[in-house]
Amino acid sequence: MARRAPCRILQPAFDECGYRADRRCGDTRSIPLTLKATTSLSDARAFLGDAPVMSKRRVAEAESARETGQLRVAIVHYWLVSMRGGEKVVEELCRMFPQADIFTLVCNRDRISDFLKTRNIRTSFLQKIPGAQRHYTKMLPLMPFALEQFDLQDYDLVLSSESGPAKGIITRADALHVCYCHSPMRYIWDQFHVYRHGLPWIGRALMSITAPMLRAWDVTTASRVDTFIANSDYVASRIRRFYDRESVVIHPPVATDDFAVGKGKGEFYLYAGQLTTYKRPDIAVRACTEAGRKLVVIGEGEQLPYLKSIAGPTVQFLGHQPFNVLRDHLSRCRALLFPGTEDFGILPVEAMASGRPVLAFDAGGARETVSSPQVGFRFAEQTTEALLETMAAFEEVEDDVDPHAIRAHALKFSSAVFRDRLANLIEQELSSRGDRSAEVFRKRPG
């Protein structure tokens, strides 16, 4: 008969057969016991004879990590195919945890930053499908299977970056899983009909068939998360609505030091971002065409041909531009026009870090960032007429705008503030579990 492990390494939550009830989810099904990284090396080797769930190499690595106090960290991001808000959060996470490995469904190394290219990035089987880097969104029904194939058993802390599916990964039972939620998946929840109407008939049919199953999976996998972080109060309310979970609000990091206050009052209005239906760039184009105001449009997307067809001679389209061009235009614009609904919206904060006001639709994260007349105006209706009225009101007081006061407001959303708040939360979560890594984490450099 196989030798039993000494009783001292078993926790009160395990039954006599070495199985554990998942109390967090209220699930009484038995789950095989997994060795904790905090188990001593001698006890671990004794236990291996009864239930060889870890190789001797893994036991040794666990003991070494424990002695050094270093957390083994995994960062899970939905896909790395561009450098937008979610990817900038991933960059900050990598700076906080330089030892972390990145797991993502699909990666296009030609479209990510040089900093991310230096990281250890592991992709799913979707990466091997021809055309995956361009048509990844069409593989949504396969994404739950791809995520659950990632082996995260070696990691003590898992940080999932959620907007597409990311939180559905399977972690070790005693690992800490913190989900930074940019948004519950829009295309299966509140933006379902918007995305569906933009598809050909075969796409609409497939989406109608698969969406109910994806919603069920999305809700179920919310129980795999120990702590939710929302990037805004707006997203926190959606997490509560769709997942019935509470969350801590930590605004995403904005690299405010990368921007500087421009000179003069500005030469043109600016729209920047994806040219997609839900962002409503058509409102900005129509308003400036009708008012005869100069508008520069930076971005690309499926709406570009339509926008060009309705634009007047005062509207200039620059397409996709590198960061230095965007930064230059942010510093020289009269104001940023932001007519869409975003969960947070990093671009308005970048504009304010450049000392420029923002004219935004009164919804989503803009309510938290464009929070006073000193930094911009919000319009109540998502229409061209409402934006025209707001532009007229802004132009009446434009000469009184204080660029340095606007920038001071933007600094509340800096990367340093993000890192400090996130570090404190993770430290608290580790401490509440009695994890000794919390003390080492507390003393980390920077």
From TrEMBL:
Residue ranges occupied by any Glycosyltransferase subfamily 4-like N-terminal domain in the UniProt entry: 84-257
SUPFAM superfamilies: UDP-Glycosyltransferase/glycogen phosphorylase
CDD domains assigned to the protein according to its UniProt record, in alphabetical order: GT4_WbaZ-like
Coiled coil residues, start to end: none
Molecular function terms from GO: glycosyltransferase activity
A Pfam family that the UniProt record links to this protein: Glycos_transf_1
Domain Glycosyl transferase family: 263-398
Protein name from the UniProt record: Probable glycosyltransferase protein
Species lineage: Bacteria, Pseudomonadati, Pseudomonadota, Alphaproteobacteria, Hyphomicrobiales
